[in-house]
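A sample copied in:

***
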Amino acid sequence: MNMKSDIFFQKERAMNFKTIEKAVIWVVGFLAVSAFIGQVTSANMEWYDTLPKSPLNPPKWAFPIAWTSLYILLAIAASRFWMQRNDPYGKNHLTLFVIYMLFNWAWSFIFFTGHLVTPGFIWIVISDIILTTLIIILWRHDRRIETALIIPTLLWSFFAAYLNGYIAFNL
C-alpha cells in the first residue's frame, strides 16, 4: 500500500467513525424524548385500560419494545437527513421528517394526556399521510437507505391507527 491510499483509508475510517458517532448521538436524543413522553403519559394508563380494545391489540409490554426499536431506526434516519441537509432536496427531506416527528410525538399527549380518542385517530392518520409522502419523495430521490429506515415506522403507525380507530369507533 502506498502513502496516498493509506491516507485515504485513514480519512475514510475517520468519516465512518464520525458518522457512527453522530448517529449514536441522535439515537440517544430520540430515546430520551421517547422516555420523557413515556414518563409523562404513563400516568394515564389506568384510563387506557378502560377503553375497548381490538382483538389484535398487542400486550402492554410490546409497545415500548416496538417504539424503542422504531425510534432507533428513526434516529439513524434523522442523522442521515441532518448530514444531507445541504444536498439537493436535503433540506426538504429534513423539514418533512421534522414535521412528521412533531406529529408523532404530539400524538401521545393528544391521546393519553388529553384523552382525545377521535382527534387522536385523525392526528395519527394525518401523521401517516405525512410519513407516506416522505417515503414516496425519498424513493423518487433515490434515498433508499432512509426509505428503508422509516418504512417499519409507517407499518407500525398504520397498525397504531387501526388500534386508535377501533377504540374511537367502539366508545
